[in-house]
Design goal:
10 helices, alpha+beta, 2 domains, about 350 residues, PH-domain like, single chain, about 50% helix, 7-stranded antiparallel β-sheet
């Protein structure tokens, strides 16, 4: 195998190692040991040894179980932040040294393996952390993601042995996809960190006074003082999903103002009489207020707003104002009537 082929095979194996190191080693080892793939590099025979297969199989079984449970998967990913990239680099060393390639190829393979596996690991760990906080469908989402990761890791590793160039092409597409969504993932990662910190703060005290929006957002409101305002994270709203901003109630409107591209301020709003139903849901790290409304074309839409637990009193206040299902003191109908804010409970 020449240097180019070695690097080509290193790319997909590094990506799969970042997703699931043990599945990668297990698939490659079994394929080499039992001859499932023709013309596999002889240097990979070490992965087909019985001790390696036993260890990889036991660790994969543990990860298969742990990976399905909320927050346990985050702890597992944290532990493997360095294990997966180092494992990918070890596979690259085995692959390159076994073929007798020069030192330049070894260094290139190490850099490629380390960086690619770290990117895929970051995407996997970050996605899991975000899903555990924002998804209302746990542990079902976790199970689906875990199975998908196992299938991708095992399938791409097997493809890399038989068709390295095709596997490299698939890996490049996946990397481009990951890099495209990394900025959004980093924003959500910041919110997850804030949510965890707010959960700790909520053990001592909670914020009950409204968050005052900055002057730029007050300008979008026509400088009319809101009757309610809180800093939240938005979901499911076109063009501003995943953005943090200020959710306000003003002039019988529900208004969300946010900043895009540093100095570009944008907003989303809906009249209260267009709201059909509101639901309040509480999780360990966040409170969620889900608004079902009709847009300008009279089409049913959903907007979801996430409050950190430090702002739980504000989330409950908004829920009562909008008669949300699930909030103590809200009206039984669970919707706003004729755009009027209901009276606050004593």
């Amino acid at each position: 195998m020449d240097a180019l082929q070695t690097l080509v095979m290193t790319l997909p194996l590094s990506l799969t190692a970042g997703l699931n190191l043990y599945a990668t080693v297990l698939v490659v080892g079994l394929a080499v040991r039992y001859g499932w793939v023709q013309n596999a590099p002889q240097s990979l025979d070490v992965l087909g040894s019985l001790p390696v297969l036993i260890v990889a199989g036991v660790m994969y079984a543990i990860e298969f179980v742990v990976d399905k449970f909320q927050f346990f998967d985050n702890a597992w990913d944290l532990i493997h932040t360095f294990i997966r990239p180092l494992g990918a680099m070890a596979i690259a060393v085995i692959l390159v040294y076994g073929e007798g390639d020069p030192a330049v190829t070894v260094i290139a393979a190490l850099l490629l393996a380390g960086s690619v596996s770290f990117v895929s690991h970051t995407a996997k760990a970050g996605t899991r952390a975000v899903v555990n906080v924002v998804s209302p469908h746990e542990n079902f989402t976790n199970i689906g993601l875990s199975v998908t990761e196992d299938v991708v890791a095992g399938g791409l590793a097997a493809l890399a042995l038989g068709h390295p160039y095709l596997a490299a092409g698939v890996a490049v597409v996946l990397l481009v996809f990951i890099l495209f969504f990394l900025p959004k993932l980093w924003r959500w990662g910041g919110f997850v960190f804030t949510a965890v910190l707010s959960r700790v703060l909520a053990l001592g005290r909670q914020r009950r006074e409204s968050d005052l929006p900055p002057a730029e957002h007050l300008a979008l409101l026509g400088h009319r003082p809101p009757t309610f305002s809180a800093w939240v994270k938005a979901q499911k709203i076109p063009w501003c999903a995943g953005r943090s901003g200020w959710l306000c109630v003003v002039d019988n409107r529900l208004f969300f103002g946010y900043c895009k591209w540093l100095f570009l301020h944008r907003s989303w709003q809906v009249a209260l009489d267009q709201i059909q139903a509101v639901y309040f849901r509480r999780s360990w790290l966040t409170d969620k207020v889900e608004v079902h409304y009709l847009d300008a074309r009279n089409k049913a839409r959903v907007a979801r707003f996430l409050f950190t637990r430090y702002r739980s009193p504000l989330a409950e206040d908004l829920g009562r104002r909008l008669n949300a299902h699930g909030v103590p003191g809200a009206a039984a109908e669970g919707k706003v009537i004729e755009g009027q804010l209901p009276p606050q409970p004593a």
